[in-house]
Design a protein that fits this description.
The protein is globular. The protein has about 350 residues and is an alpha+beta fold. Helices cover about 20% and strands about 20% of the residues. The chain has one domain (about 10-230, about 280-350): Chorismate synthase AroC (Chorismate synthase, AroC fold). It has a five-stranded antiparallel β-sheet with strand order 1-2-3-5-4, covered by helices on one side. A five-stranded antiparallel β-sheet has the order 7-6-8-14-9.
Length: about 350
């Protein structure tokens, strides 16, 4: 029995997800409540779910941590639906001596203020990217449910360390070379993941805090390392005029009796009304338009780096330096791609389960 306090976190209005455990605890897990009526554990395609988890799992790429975890989900309860993943490859000794010397950029110091040493912070504890494994179980299930409704979600890394992806194989992509260069230098880089949803019907969401952006953002910001979320053109709208930013409405060619959408029409569902552009990212007033939903997510550089950094010795009350050991991703955004897909799926399914629809 662990002497540490177990931390859990819950998100969702109609579909509630609770994530629990820690990076160096015996397991990490997830509980789902409010799934569609009649949905049971036997409806889950476990092979498909395992394949989805493998995209996030550590130890499979030179652009991520060397920690190796199979990330096999174990069903521990059918009501409420609960899965756990048992941690197998913790190196807790890598984090000895850090209790009184908080790592810059990590939650060590703030977790100490909040939990007073009651939480196991080895490997980042409940603040670790390890917690995205159970999130991906829940999101993988949501993806399967949405796929049956004709909704597809795809994310990709589009920028890392200030270098845009060339959309070529990683070994030839300067973006990935930038990540490897940071790794060789004992450093890390941030990155941006873009997520696109196709087949989303219009009319989902609501005003203000019932809006899709309001529902999606808390789930995405719960992903460790996320520092920014935007939809459509995001912060670029600050430099646009209304005439540039507004998406003109038009009639889909196959539904048109007169004027129709031009060749610039992108994505969308099968409804007649489209928009000629998609600066709004498929959401207006918090409600889906029927066009592709587009969301960008900004990840900070991994704070655990091999370079010497300044910190404080809390016990001695003086400044000191620290070098962080252990195994860490040189760019957390690489393995975060399926995590963003999972978060998007959970948020959209939650919105679609609104009983007022």
């Amino acid at each position: 029995m662990s002497a540490y306090r177990t931390i859990s976190s819950t998100v969702g209005k109609h579909l509630k997800m609770t994530v629990f455990g820690g990076s160096h605890e015996p397991s990490v897990g997830v509980r789902l409540e409010g799934l569609p009526d009649g949905f049971i554990a036997a409806d889950i395609d476990m092979a498909q779910l395992q394949a989805f988890l493998a995209r996030r799992a550590p130890g499979s790429t030179p652009y991520g941590t060397a920690r190796k975890e199979a990330d096999v989900p174990v069903l521990t309860s059918e009501e409420p639906l609960t899965f756990e993943i048992y941690n197998k490859d913790q190196h807790s000794g890598d984090y000895k001596g850090l209790t009184n010397t908080p790592r810059p950029g990590h939650a060590d110091y703030t977790a100490g203020l909040r939990y007073h040493g009651e939480v196991n912070m080895a490997g980042g504890g409940p603040f670790s990217g390890r917690m995205t494994a159970p999130l991906c179980i829940a999101g993988g299930i949501a993806l399967q449910i949405l796929a049956k409704k004709g909704i597809a979600i795809h994310a990709q890394l589009v920028e890392a360390g200030g270098v845009q992806s060339a959309n070529v194989p990683p070994e030839d992509d300067p973006m990935y070379q930038r990540i490897l260069a940071a790794k060789a230098d004992g450093d890390s880089v941030g990155g941006r993941v873009r997520c696109v949803v196709s087949g989303m019907p219009g009319g989902i969401g609501g005003a203000m805090y019932d809006g899709l952006e309001s529902l999606l953002s808390p789930i995405v910001f719960g992903i460790p390392g996320v520092k920014g979320v935007s939809f459509g053109d995001g912060f670029a709208v600050c430099g646009m005029t209304g005439s540039e930013n507004n998406d003109p409405f038009c009639i889909a060619p196959e539904k048109a009796a007169g004027a129709a959408c031009g060749e610039n029409t992108v994505g969308g569902d099968s409804a007649a009304v489209k928009t000629a552009t998609n600066h709004a990212g498929g959401i207006l007033g918090g409600i889906s338009t029927g066009m592709d939903i587009i969301m960008d997510v900004a990840f900070k550089p991994t704070p655990s780096i091999a370079k010497e950094q300044q910190t404080v010795d809390l016990a001695a009350g003086k400044e000191t330096t620290i070098t962080v050991g252990g195994r860490h991703d040189p760019c957390i955004a690489v393995r975060a791609v399926p995590v963003v897909e999972a978060a998007m799926a959970l948020g959209l399914l939650d919105a679609m389960l609104d009983p007022s629809l």
